[in-house]
Amino acid sequence: MTEADPRARSSWFQRFLLPGFALKAVIIGGGYATGRELAEYFIPSGPWGGLAAMLLATGIWSLVAAVTFAMAREMQAYDYKSFFRGLLGPGWVLFEISYLIFVVLIIAVFGAAAGEIGAATFGWPALVGSIALAVTILAVVSFGTGTVEQLFRYASFLIYTVYALFLILALATFGDRIGQGFSESPPPQDGWFAGGLTYASYNIVGAVIILPVLRHLTSTRDAIVAGVIAGPLTMLPAILFFVAMVAFYPAVGAETLPSDFLLRQMDVPGFAVVFQLMIFVALLESGVGAIHAVNERIASALQARGRPDLGTLMRSVIGAFILAGCMFVAAEIGLVDLIASGYRFLAWLFLAVYVVPLLAIATYRLLTRRSSKR
User: What are the domain boundaries of the chain?
Assistant: First the structure.
């Protein structure tokens, strides 16, 4: 281990919490932060069914993240191309195609959500909010991994704090309705398992997107612990949000922006602006994570050919090219349709090219090693 190796000076935060914060950063954007995804995949199963689905998704995230992190460290693969080349061999190109579809879709969702937030909070035309998000994403990804990690760290503290305040205000304003919603709700209704599995499946690709931040891991134990912690860290804000949504179940499920609907019910001067700005930061985190993964994949390919690393200008150009196409998709389709249709397609896609092969190969390697030790 050389002096320049980041693992030589890795902190406890970088080893155990940063991966979870990074995973949350990638997943929280768009429909999660606005509540639209929660309305789509959890509210239909009722209060208890929704919570059951969220716990299922959390368990899947922890399992897949722990296995992904451990295998990435074993293969020393810290970008998605290197990881899937080691996992699938020549089949790695299937993930590349799937990931590009994913990037286009989620950035389009983020752009649509930013436009909706700008319109709801400040009365802006939708395009203004989308452009503001794109420009901010470019400003962060241009400076590379160090800047991205700092964003994940400090934005995470902001997001957890605002969601905690959100729940406190919800309990103070309409807490009786929340209690009533849970007490009058039947046991988990049909569909909770499918909802949790679908939500977990298309989002867990975040565990591969954040591979660049795993360079701080010092052992397989670090990787497994970080992966297990990542699931709860990622889902906690969503659970807080969902509990507040139960107060207006089932009507809240029809809202394009459940966050804006609940904020109007609270009617706390100033907090609506704070919350919507927090959502913008969440969209920023997720967009940065997705674009940064592409930049790191290209940078890794250049280094393998003995060429210089990507500079600030090239990172900006690549990001601008991707964002321009995605924002066009956002404007043409819209937030609700993107989440309702596109995400289900992604769930099956990533189950096939990532989750099933990962768990199958990891299980095979584990059994093979045990047999060789006997």
Answer: 12-367
From first to last of its 374 residues, what are the pLDDT tens digits of the chain? 444 455 557 789 999 999 999 999 889 875 688 888 899 999 999 999 999 999 999 999 999 999 999 999 999 999 888 999 988 888 888 888 888 888 878 887 788 778 877 887 788 887 888 889 989 999 999 988 889 999 998 988 999 999 999 999 999 999 999 999 999 888 887 789 999 999 999 888 999 989 999 999 999 999 999 999 999 999 999 999 999 999 999 999 988 889 889 999 998 888 988 998 898 898 899 889 989 998 888 888 888 888 887 888 889 888 888 888 776 765 666 555 656 666 778 888 899 999 999 999 888 887 787 666 55
Closest CA to 14 of 315, 229, 283, 204: 229
12-367: which CATH topology?
Hydantoin permease (1.10.4160)
pTM (two decimals): 0.85
Give the CA diameter of the chain: 69
Retrieve residue 252's tokens: 């809240």
Q: Which residue in 18, 8, 2 sits closest to 285, CA to CA?
A: 18
